[in-house]
Amino acid sequence: MTSLLKQAEETLEEAQAGINRRWYPRYHLAARAGWMNDPNGLVWFDGWYHAFYQHHPYSTKWGPMHWGHARSKDLVHWEHLPVALAPEGPADKDGCFSGSAVVDGDTLALIYTGHKFHGSPESDDNLYQVQCLATSRNGVHFERQGMVIDTPPGLHHFRDPKVWREGEYWYMVVGSRVAETGQVRLYRSTDLHKWHDEGILAESEDGMGYMWECPDFFTLNGQRVLMFSPQGMVAQGYQNRNLFQSGYLLGEWQPGQAFSHDGQFIEMDNGHDFYAPQTFLSPDGRRIVIGWLDMWESPMPEQQDGWAGMLSLPRELSLGDNNRLMMKPIAEVTALRGSYIPVTAHCLSSQQMLVAADAEAMELSLEWERARSQAEQYGMMLGDGLRIYVDNQAQRLILERSYPDFSLVGTRSIPLPEDDILSLRIFIDRSSVEVFVNEGEACLSSRIYPQPGERAIMLFANSGSAALKEAGCWSLDR
Ligand code: FRU
Question: Is the pTM of this model over 0.90?
Answer without folding.
Answer: yes
